[in-house]
Amino acid sequence: MTIESLDLLPLRPVRVRSNGRRDFDPEDKRRLVQMCLESAISVSGMALKAGVNANQLRKWIDRYQPSSAGADSALTPFVPVQTSMPNQPSVAALSARLPNGAVLELSCAVAADTGLFKALIETLWNQR
Predict the structure, then answer these.
(1) pLDDT value, residue 69
(2) Alpha-carbon separation of residue 70 from 7, 48, 128 (angstroms)
(3) How many other CB atoms are there within 10 angstroms of residue 36's CB atom?
(4) Which of 32, 39, 123, 128 is at a distance of 20 to 30 A from 6, taking alpha carbons?
């Protein structure tokens, strides 16, 4: 987290309704989501620091992340993916830099492992 983000935490409501529900500034929510996606802190840990429920924060993250349908969103795509065909024409490679700085590199023999490669990518996609 940066010095700039410390003034955001805990998240301050802009309004508290008569039923106890709190409304937060959309820009503050977007900044909190951005911090969650860029830092190595868990969502539940960040929710504790922000003073919000972890399930609510996860909903905000889902709402602000780009959808798979390609609709416009408040945040830009987070994981640039590169594909390449190395020197061997029968090998495919995929590389992605994750928001926490980790690099994921996958490669497979195109003819033999495409089903496994596809299943691995689908599993990783569904885990997000």
Answers:
(1) 47
(2) 33, 31, 16
(3) 21
(4) 128
pTM for the model: 0.49
Residues listed for the chain: 128
Where is pLDDT greater, at 112 or 116? Answer: 116
Which residue type occupies 59? K
Residue 75 — very low, low, confident or very high, per pLDDT cuts 50/70/90? very low
**Which residues are CB-contacts of 6 (< 8 A; sequence separation ≥ 6)?**
none
Instruction: Give the Cα separation of 2 and 69 in Å (integer).
Output: 32
Check residue 118 and give its pLDDT.
72
CA 92 vs CA 36, 95, 107, 120, 126: distances in Å: 32, 10, 5, 14, 22
Delimit the domains of the chain by residue range. 3-64, 81-126
Domain with residues 3-64, CATH architecture: Orthogonal Bundle (1.10)
**What token pair was written down for 101?**
């700085």
